[in-house]
Specification:
This protein is mainly alpha-helical. It has 2 domains: 98 residues, Cyclin A, domain 1; 35 residues, no CATH class. It has 6 helices and 2 strands, in the order H-H-H-H-H-E-E-H. The chain has a two-stranded antiparallel ribbon with strand order 1-2. Strand 1 and strand 2 form a beta hairpin. The chain is globular, with a radius of gyration of 16 Å.
Length: 134
């Protein structure tokens, strides 16, 4: 997918809203808590920001993206800052710190970290070795 390396809605300095990049993640957690497959939503929200020049910090944009992908966007957006969602977010953040995650995307396989999309080939090879070992 073609990406905009400097998307229009990615702050170039200190953002006016410190949570601007957390809202989409909170929406994805809300979907997970509803028992939904949240991976397509996560991808759609990332695509909206990085490829479609959409401002995912705006609630209306997140709701639209969710709706376009078969989710109930208004329900998920209403859950974004619920105690349950924020507790999962804090737990996920603490786990990431504990595991030494320092950027996204990071994939952890056993004790090995693969950081960055350009490392997916290394991850694939490591998974192939595991599969071959049975």
């Amino acid at each position: 997918m073609p990406l905009n390396l400097e998307p229009a809605h990615y702050p170039k300095g200190a953002p006016s809203d410190p949570n601007w990049n957390k809202y989409p993640g909170w929406m994805v957690i809300a979907a997970q808590l509803q028992g939904l497959d949240a991976l397509p939503l996560s991808h759609a929200l990332l695509r909206a920001l990085w490829a479609e020049e959409r401002d995912t910090s705006e609630a209306a944009v997140r709701i639209a993206v969710a709706d376009e992908n078969g989710y109930d966007g208004a329900t998920l957006q209403a859950m974004e800052q619920s105690a349950e969602v924020l507790a999962v977010y804090r737990a996920n953040s603490a786990e990431a710190v504990e595991l030494g995650v320092f950027g996204a995307p990071t994939f952890i396989l056993g004790d090995e970290r693969f950081w960055g999309q350009d490392r997916l080939g290394f991850l694939d090879r490591a998974l192939d070795k595991l599969r071959a070992a049975g």
